[in-house]
Amino acid sequence: MKKRYRNGEIWDFEHEIGELGNREVILGLDGGTTSTVCVCMPIFPFSDPFPDPLPVLARAVAGCSNHNSVGETAARETLEQVMADALLKSGSNRSAVRAVCLSVSGVNHSTDELRILNWLREIFPTHVKLYVQNDAVAALASGTMGKLHGCVLIAGTGTIAFGFTEDGRQARAAGAGPVLGDWGSGYGIAAQALTAIVRAYDGRGPLTILSSNILQTLGLSSPDELIGWTYADPSWARIAALVPVVVSCAEAGDRVAHEILQDSVEELALSVKAVVQRLGLCGEDGKASFPLVMVGGVLEANKRWDIGKEVVNHISKSYPGVLPIHPKVEPAVGAALLGWNFLMTESHKEACKR
Amino acid sequence: MKKRYRNGEIWDFEHEIGELGNREVILGLDGGTTSTVCVCMPIFPFSDPFPDPLPVLARAVAGCSNHNSVGETAARETLEQVMADALLKSGSNRSAVRAVCLSVSGVNHSTDELRILNWLREIFPTHVKLYVQNDAVAALASGTMGKLHGCVLIAGTGTIAFGFTEDGRQARAAGAGPVLGDWGSGYGIAAQALTAIVRAYDGRGPLTILSSNILQTLGLSSPDELIGWTYADPSWARIAALVPVVVSCAEAGDRVAHEILQDSVEELALSVKAVVQRLGLCGEDGKASFPLVMVGGVLEANKRWDIGKEVVNHISKSYPGVLPIHPKVEPAVGAALLGWNFLMTESHKEACKR
């Protein structure tokens, strides 16, 4: 019963909230490899367009909740804590929650989804609607304001392309982590840059200013020390944090850095094209328009060497109808909007049955 | 004092050995990412040629002792246990040891060497000579019978090329682990194969029989399940164990598997060429002969698709003087011979001083 005891501590604040907690809310969670965000949104009436700005009661942030990266126990603790924090900040308790939409990286299979659903069910009363999705789904919803149509490309520490058709078919590409070839990701870019330093040092590759710039950033004096640095900590985010250095080296004219970014662009574009083709998002003539929601630090780099812009250019050569969207709200808000949409759809269906 | 207590248990057998332990011995250790081997060899008189077969008193085997892979505590325990096992089997105790030559992967920097030396000093009496080397050095010595000249290429779970000139200069290439681009390694080959399965599945890459053959080997029913399988266990050796499946797919004519092996050949050859060029092992005209000791499961594949043979073909286009050697003794014996050579050299120097 250790678990229950821990739950008890996390949820202790609920005794203090009392009647304040009557306003009905939705929790939207975005759990990535680097951080986890939970927002608490009030239930607002079905309307078109959405209220602007969207009413967000509270926002809480925690660390990594990808169970493939930190293990299941740590992932669960992080998710439970961040939900409790968001409810505490909004002055709500669990009985006020109508729905939880948990969109978390590492959900790759229906068994992953079911495991998380079972565990959420231990935390929330039975009337609470629970939805578990891959984190890409919330990211798409953040660009389409809760509508599941089009494709999303995430490129942060990891990368994935995820698409939906209006009739509910879905497809994904990449998102399989660094061992399984997510080369366009922030981790992929930075690992290639570290590799280029080793290769320049041992004579396998050309000289590059990545060597001096990255070693200086890491406070290391020799490429020899990179090996110890790399394996001292298994965190992918720690390596991905070097992407800005690679971008600045490419902007300074370094050929090796430029080629690494160019490879990343091709890999990211390839993921999107694979999804678009499988779902037929481009129509039969390949020219139909479709939204491409672009999310993550690698695509947001507002620099001269703009990876996101190059990815769109690359895709538009095959699919000229691509409509890039840079979301105005964060993925956790996308998850809350998605939860709201699911809830409205279910309510509507139930009302029709009566 | 927990450490001392543990030592006490490991070395308990010494009380039983008594006078039997008077014969002087050398311990040679080869610590790789997959396993660790320790041999116990008697001191034999300086002679040329070596006794054939070499007298080996005992051999013990343990798991991984690369501190980058399993952590420092586990690596130390493994090394201590395997030395104790070899001494126990040979009926010797620590006071009979003249020299220990520990050749272990993960020794990349003088600080790594010093840390292991200090720790060995806690185990052995002060008169015991201690030598710590990267595991590539023992592998070279296993092909040259203890002489440090030429180049060794290891390709097992990991890969490294290491070379020595007769006047004592040394150079290495690769050996920086999977994150830092050891693509020709067993891990590299297998990770590329797993990646090819994911890419075929999500539409980014061509279809390949790697999918059915590897999934069947792993007992998985869908490529989706590969992600969970891959990250369930961080062992690199577990992934590298799939190399034979990749080789058999290439032999069956699969283009994707063939290209993965071809890439591996190019990467491995590039490592050797980088070392040969930096050390000038090929002479000024590039045609001088030099030994290339070839070690590790990837190079030993005695199949139609022979990676080792292709690597030599590739190198000989640049350096026709390459003389491939497949060692007749294992790297741990190479380490013992190296320890014997170091010991003889030191004894000779001391005798000259007198």
Automatic annotation (TrEMBL), chains A, B:
One family name in Pfam for this protein: BcrAD_BadFG
Enzyme class: transferase
GO molecular function: N-acetylglucosamine kinase activity
InterPro entries: ATPase_BadF (IPR002731), ATPase_NBD (IPR043129), Euk-type_GlcNAc_Kinase (IPR052519)
ATPase BadF/BadG/BcrA/BcrD type domain mapped to chain residues: 27-339
EC code: 2.7.1.59
Family designation: Belongs to the eukaryotic-type N-acetylglucosamine kinase family.
Name of the featured protein: N-acetyl-D-glucosamine kinase
Organism annotation: Populus euphratica
Source lineage: Eukaryota, Viridiplantae, Streptophyta, Embryophyta, Tracheophyta
